[in-house]
Amino acid sequence: MLNVTAMSTGLLRVEPTSSSVLINNTITASSTTITAIANVSSSAENPTVENLPENVNVLLVVIKGIIMGTIITTAVLGNMLVIASVRRHRRLRVVTNCYVVSLAAADLLVAMCAMTFNASVELSGGKWLFGPIMCDLWNSLDVYFSTASILHLCCISVDRYYAIVSPLEYTVIMKQSTVGCMLGSAWVLPALISFIPIFMGWYTTKEHLEYMVKHPESCEFRVNLPYALISSCVSFWIPGLVMIIMYYKIYKEAIRQRKALSRTSSNIVLNSVHHHRSSTRHHHHQQMLLQAAADTGTSIRQQTKSWRAEHKAARTLGIIMGAFLLCWLPFFLWYLTTSLCGEACYTPDTVVSVLFWIGYFNSALNPLIYAYFNRDFRDAFKDTLKSALPCCAGHCWKTPSQFV
């Protein structure tokens, strides 16, 4: 998301002292002997001290590369599968999935435009290889697409709130124009805290801008306090608060509706039995009552089915929101804390890298949540993969597709 840590090399250089210079500058034979012995001892120990860290560093780079490559690949393929499945299957073309497809596009671009460059910096030992203009572009894209992904989750929570709390007004409120405005805002607002302040130089100090000119091999993103407060509020704290409020209200409404449906079903059964016992003299009237009860029962079952579908979707999206908080909360807590207390809150580069990639992992996690918790998406994924991988059609999935 926001690349706050220093990832430059060559900031501190210590020139090595030649052993021949030490020997030539010695005055007495005893000091020359001591220096020579020290140099021999050092040369005997250096291979062990130098080779072991080098081997360990290579191993760590390989492990980091595998982890980062797995996250990037999962995010790219998973979100492409979401987009292809919704486009391929009419059953998934509902209002809520407009947000889901747009979210998948944002997560896909996070993987392609943010994760890849971050991985190159991590695997090259902190060096930036693409020049100063690309550095600003990368930082802008990182902030932009990560914020867009988070704002999409906020839009989804608002959509689910109206679908469950105000179902009769949902189709009136969530018209195509409303959905378009919400999605447009999710794509436009991130530009206000990414491209504009970064390319204008408003996000940092004058000293840091001068440092970046002198060190093109570095792509640090040191922010000033006003930018840190504004960007973190727009990117995380405000959307996160909205999501928590929406899903709390959804949870309360779900409990209320469940109790109401339970009471309604019980009353229908009791009323049917009562009318059946008290209407034995009027057979025709009895048949009418039973038919009315049957019709009412059918209506209740339809309402229950619709209620369960809406709440199943809300549960899946609630799990997505929980995953979002778990992935991004540690990063933004660190981001805001270090911006407030400065150098006093030093954090090792390794910890910062882990926080970054936990946040990035959220973009790869959303398609996995759909596949595991939502049966419609799970079946659509299978059907899409069958068509993309015909060689596996007869072995991986035995049941025919129910989609059109």
TrEMBL record:
Mode of membrane association: Multi-pass membrane protein
Domain G-protein coupled receptors family 1 profile as annotated: residue spans: 78-370
TM spans (from-to): 58-82, 94-117, 137-158, 179-205, 225-248, 313-334, 354-373
Intracellular or extracellular location(s): Cell membrane
Single GO MF annotation: octopamine receptor activity
Keyword Repeat belongs to the record: no
GO CC, alphabetical: plasma membrane
Organism, as annotated: Temnothorax curvispinosus
The UniProt record lists the keyword Transmembrane helix: yes
SMART domains assigned to the protein according to its UniProt record, in alphabetical order: 7TM_GPCR_Srsx
InterPro entries: GPCR_Rhodpsn (IPR000276), GPCR_Rhodpsn_7TM (IPR017452)
Any one Gene Ontology BP term: adenylate cyclase-activating adrenergic receptor signaling pathway
Descriptive protein name: Octopamine receptor beta-3R-like isoform X3
Main location: membrane
PROSITE patterns attached to this UniProt entry: G_PROTEIN_RECEP_F1_1, G_PROTEIN_RECEP_F1_2
Alphabetically ordered keywords of this record: Cell membrane, G-protein coupled receptor, Membrane, Receptor, Transducer, Transmembrane, Transmembrane helix
Family from the record: Belongs to the G-protein coupled receptor 1 family.
